[in-house]
Amino acid sequence: MKKIILTAAAVFAFGFANAQDKSENGGQTAKGKYLIEANTNFGAAHGSNTSFGLKSVDGTTSYNLGLEGGYFVMDNLAIKAGLGYGDSGEDGTDGTFSYKLGAKYYVNGNIPVQADFNGASGNDLSPMYLGLQGGYAIFLGQNVSIEPGLRYDFGMNEDAGDGDFNPFSLRVGFALHF
User: Fold this and answer.
1) What's the confidence (pLDDT) of residue 24?
2) What does 98-127 look like in DSSP terms, one character per residue?
3) CATH match for 21-177 among 3.40.50.1110, 3.30.70.380, 3.30.450.20, 2.40.160.20
4) Can you tell me the mean pLDDT for 93-113?
């Protein structure tokens, strides 16, 4: 266990200390680059989810698969879209298709802040949310980053609880920059 903790600490220390090229023409968040992202979601589950997840409770297994992608329209600003599909594992329910459209801005090239519109369709429900998230991008190399962060979703319609149920979650994202 001690070796795992020390290895993780070394990886994070290297990520923080590693100097990155954030110039206008060569950085990971430069205009014209692409972003492909996979996220994990640790928090309250809700109707819209474009992250990866697997959960088993009392013999019922639920899962979610999702992916997001974006294009940098200017330095540090990406327009993003995401898709996801999940199943609660409960009898009598169908799977849920999720979507996300938004923008992600990297403050100083390594502090991602995102605003998006997201929703889902399935089981005769169509919840819609306005999502906000922020975090820190740890660039492990020229094309890979880990982005831990916090996310808040505000319910915008009756199926999303009319703002009474607003999920707050911790996320860890893995991004590829091309």
Assistant:
1) 41
2) EEEEEEEEEETTTEEEEEEEEEEEBTTB--
3) 2.40.160.20
4) 94
Cα–Cα distance list, 147 to 87, 138, 171, 175 (Å): 26, 6, 8, 7
Helix residue ranges, H only, the chain: 2-17
Contact (Cβ atoms closer than 8 angstroms) between residue 50 and residue 99: yes
| Contact of 81 with 70, CB cutoff 8 Å | yes
**Helix or strand run (H / E) with residue 55:** strand 53-57
How many Å apart are CA 122 and CA 90, to the nearest integer? 13
| pTM summary value | 0.80
Residue 167 backbone phi and psi in degrees, to 5: -65, 140
Q: State both tokens at 129.
A: 């949310």
Contact in structure between 178 and 161 (CB atoms under 8 Å): no
Asked if 65 and 54 touch (Cβ cutoff 8 Å), the reply is no
